[in-house]
Amino acid sequence: MSSIRAQVIIVGGGPAGAAxxxxxxxxxxxxxxxxxxxxxxDKPCSEYMSPQASRILDDMGVLSRVEQAGAAHLAGMxxxxxxxxxxxxxxxxxxxxxxxxxxxxxxxxxxxxxILLARAQEAGAVVRENARVTSLVHDATGRVVxxxxxxxxxxxxxxxxxxVGADGxxxxxxxxxxxxxxxxxxxxxxxxxxxxxIEGIGDSGEMHVERDGYFGLADVGGGVSNVAVVVxxxxxxxxxxxxxxxxxxxxxxxxxxxxxFARAMRVSPVLATGPFASASHRAxxxxxxxxxxxxxxxxxxxxxxxxxxxxxxxxxxxxxxAAVAAPAAADSDAALKAYxxxxxxxxxxxWAVERLIGAAVSFPPLMNIAARxxxxxxxxxxxxxxxxxxxxxxxxxxRAGYLLRLVMPWLLGATPATPALTNTE
Length: 425
Ligand SMILES: Cc1cc2nc3c(=O)[nH]c(=O)nc-3n(C[C@H](O)[C@H](O)[C@H](O)COP(=O)(O)OP(=O)(O)OC[C@H]3O[C@@H](n4cnc5c(N)ncnc54)[C@H](O)[C@@H]3O)c2cc1C
Hints:
Layout: E1 2-5, E2 8-11, H1 15-26, E3 31-34, E4 48-49, H2 53-59, H3 63-68, E5 72-74, E6 76-80, E7 86-90, E8 104-106, H4 109-123, E9 126-128, E10 132-138, E11 144-151, E12 154-159, E13 162-165, H5 172-176, E14 180-182, E15 188-196, E16 205-210, E17 213-219, E18 224-232, H6 243-252, E19 265-266, E20 271-273, E21 278-280, E22 284-285, E23 288-290, H7 305-325, H8 329-362, H9 364-376, H10 378-388, H11 395-398, H12 400-406, H13 408-411
Parallel strand pairs: 1-12, 2-3, 2-13, 3-9, 6-16, 13-23
Antiparallel strand pairs: 4-8, 5-8, 6-7, 10-11, 11-12, 14-21, 15-18, 15-19, 15-20, 16-17, 17-18, 22-23
The protein binds flavin-adenine dinucleotide.
């Protein structure tokens, strides 16, 4: 068993880990990233990034690389309710707010994550792939001072002033710290794959909410579309054994979707993940911090996980730099605690919106009513999409007036069976 040392060890080289490593290395901190995977590696994801993610990509100096790699540009989101009502929110049409860009970007994770990790290396971070962290190392006071790593046949202990858990949904760092918690609400599973040749792929992402889950569809560049089927765990029997047949069958049973797949061909394996209702009590412990999915998982419906990972990294890095330079353990703890406070301030509005959207998705009559309101009032749809696009403050859709207008059809006595409306443009 050999020993490795760095000022900061980051467990996980996905968007959260790579961006944290980049910002720390840029600030002159000695950083080591450990990832159990070999890159390029895939990750079940709908692969869409909000317009505001482009601001951080630009700040990291990779926005043009992402675009040159063939990312698709998405003008907004089109959402169809179980009753067939469709509303379309467009970023460029939000009243009173402008995003960093008027479009979101979508790119295969096999490409995006490689670009981000390479950027961290260029800035000076050391990356070790195929390096699986198995446990945390503590000192006599309980403070985290390192990790145990398995690299092939070799086992090491790696020591650091701070360990960052950027190791995703089932974060070992979060679990070993006793910080992982399960969110209440419906537990869902996701199946993600790619097709070419789907009919009618437009300039916006699509979400189709069904009575038994939801279906996402988006251009991810190069003529390829990302397809995601998300179902409650109770409806996912058979998904684990033969995920491809599960997806085929799910699509075949939707008359509004199936014809569009008549000439389509699947071009990647079906990846399954979930359940994903996870969060953490807090995102720090003495000697450690959490970022990205390891800290909190956003429901995939809103497509905000990558932005949250990048933004979380941007918030965390200065606090870690302060913790590393701190003269005493108490000062280091104070810096990490300050990160957690900032994170809660930054994301709590979004968590509320996420809970609201999650409730609507889990309860079809509510989704039908909200979709009807948003189809009748396109400006409300643009605002909602602007919030999920990360450039409109969450408070805009949490205001009593907005929420009241959202449920207005119900107050006026409209039933979910009201004939379908469409504001597709
Ligand atoms: C179905 C689905 C659809 C989604 N769609 C979108 C979308 O359209 N847009 C969006 O923004 N977000 C979406 N998300 C969320 C998004 O995928 C995540 O929020 C994002 O990947 C979080 O990045 P991360 O760096 O925190 O974690 P990850 O990307 O999961 O990276 C974690 C890394 O840690 C490594 N790791 C794990 N354990 C260990 C260990 N023990 N030792 C060493 N390394 C380890 C892994 O190999 C991995 O590389 C979706 C998620 C799902 C499930």
